[in-house]
Amino acid sequence: MDTNSKLSNNAAVILVSHGSTLPYAEEVFDEIKEKFIKKSGLAAEIGYMKVSEPTIAGAVDILKDQVDDLDRIIALPVFLAPGIHTNIDIPQLLGLEPLEVDPRCPDGNYPDEHYLSIAPDVEFDGEIELLSSIGPRDELLDIINKRIQEALAESKLNDDAKTGILLVTHGSRLNYNKEFATALYNKFEKTCDLPSSFGFMELCGPSIPESINKLTEENDLERLVVVPVFIAPGMHTTHDIPHILGFLEEHEHSHSHDHGHGHDHSHDLTPVDFDGEILYPEPIKADDILIDILISMVDEKL
């Protein structure tokens, strides 16, 4: 790759992330950023929607200092599926028009304390181009299969133990996340010889317990690999899903927490009833395949 010719475009990249109160996500995104810069040769910075630093506006300021005569910024949401964040929040945080009407606030007049109201304005005279989310790309199957093999390598059962696979995603009030998970699973199912299914942590169905119950009842499984189709570790992958899987003993059966989106998330965290072995690998994290996906998305626009 000719790094110098790319940098001469006076372009830079913002890798947009949600932000988290836990340190894991920032550690993962720092690694994603460093790998992206090293492999692409492009100036890049992380821009967090909320909670973490730098903000999206702060990322723009950093890139303006890093790149002389910067006149173009490509904003790449490092999100697997489109949704309210990619279609409404991120465009507005970049100073662009939202891609659709916000079902949380159709008139666009957000409360004073809402994170879209208090976010700093982007100050940039050049072009900002917002890309789409990653989507159900074939390359994600390679990461999923890698995580499955990593998990099976840690299994205490014999290789011939009857094994099932469950892909788990977050879920959404809008249909985008379900469309993403369904499309990705349909691709995965065609490549997988083992019994498999997918489930959602919240907001839409089938739920994780529903999918596990159906999968285990129909296949008499001894072992289950539950693959979290998330980019970075966070409360959901380190706490909520493990509790559902029965890994955490002390927890209320349901709880709610406010993500600052203008609504509470209420989770049914009743553990599943499965007597076999459950393997739970890492999320996608800063996998080299993910970095290649991000670079290819940007390359299409350069």
Give a topology summary.
Elements: H1 3-7, E1 11-17, H2 23-40, E2 43-48, H3 56-66, E3 72-77, H4 84-93, H5 115-118, E4 127-130, H6 138-152, E5 163-169, H7 176-191, E6 196-200, H8 208-219, E7 223-228, H9 235-244, E8 254-258, E9 264-268, E10 277-279, H10 288-299
Parallel strand pairs: 1-2, 1-3, 3-4, 5-6, 5-7, 7-10
Antiparallel strand pairs: 8-9
Counted beta strands = 10
Give the strand line-up of the largest sheet.
2-1-3-4
Outline: globular
> Which range best describes the helical content: under 10%, 10-25%, 25-40%, 40-55%, 55-70% or over 70%?
25-40%
Largest sheet: 4 strands, parallel
Task: Assign the CATH architecture of the largest domain.
Answer: 3-Layer(aba) Sandwich
What separation lies between the terminal Cα atoms? 13 Å
Which runs of at least 5 residues are low in confidence (pLDDT < 50)?
1-8, 251-266
CATH topology of the largest domain: Rossmann fold
Structural class based on helices, strands and sheet pairing: alpha/beta
Order of helices and strands: HEHEHEHHEHEHEHEHEEEH
**Mean pLDDT value:** 89
CATH class of the largest domain: Alpha Beta
Q: Tell me the Rg in angstroms.
A: 20 Å
Task: Report the portion of residues in β strands.
Answer: 15-25%
Q: What's the total helix number?
A: 10
The domain tally reads 2
